[in-house]
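REQUEST ID: PR-0412
SUBMITTED BY: lab tech R.K.
PRIORITY: routine
TASK: structure prediction, single protein chain
INPUT:
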Amino acid sequence: MSNTQRVDKSLFEGKHYLGKPADADDLLVKRRIAILKEFQAFWDKESSLVDIGCGNGNTVLPLAKEFKKVIGLEYAPDHQADFEKLKNELNAENASWKQHDICAAPLESKVDRLISFEVIEHLPTEDGVKNYASSLNTGGLCAISVPNKWWIFETHGASLPLLPWNRVPLFSWLPRPIHERFALARIYTKKRITTLLEDSGFEVLETKLVTAPMDVIKWKPLQQILRKLFFGNHTTIWPFKAVSIMVFARKK
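STATUS: complete
OUTPUT:
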């Protein structure tokens, strides 16, 4: 058994850890969509699209009119009502919501395009990513993002002894065995996520570092100053300024 599997089993115990979805108007959501739009080969109005871990539909529903059919996939129905509400607001008639455990099985009907943003780190086992590939037609394209290890803050928090605040700066920089002993979700380097995707049936085409939106700063004037001076671009070359890693890949 690999070290990854041992960490998964001890940390997640076969359970899905559900993250809180962002709002549709959050800067991070807008940044993901803007970066995705630069991946020109992804866009095809005759293609079908699935969003694995769609949450409230904040990403997939605004994209619905760019595809023939879109599916929002979720493990649990917690945000289905919000998905349906946003679907009606956007008149996304070609969109549908589906409850499905991607770790248990791939989609029954394969699709042409796949997105999954900040989801893989919550899966009970990374083996579930193989079902991402199995849900795509051969040559199908995907865009996947995961939290970046080298961002300053622990994005998903950690259960740390004696500390009431669970987003301790630089905690994610600790060695992987220590981090995953306490973290509430996995965290990734470029090498780790690209290796995982390649081992799961994908050909990695490109990676991007997604600039932090600085929403961790609650005082709005300071947040706006930091965004304007240092965090204005959607992507960055500096790992410590990136909250997540986005990978574009093709199904082999």
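NOTES: The two ends are 26 Å apart (CA to CA).
REVIEWED BY: pending
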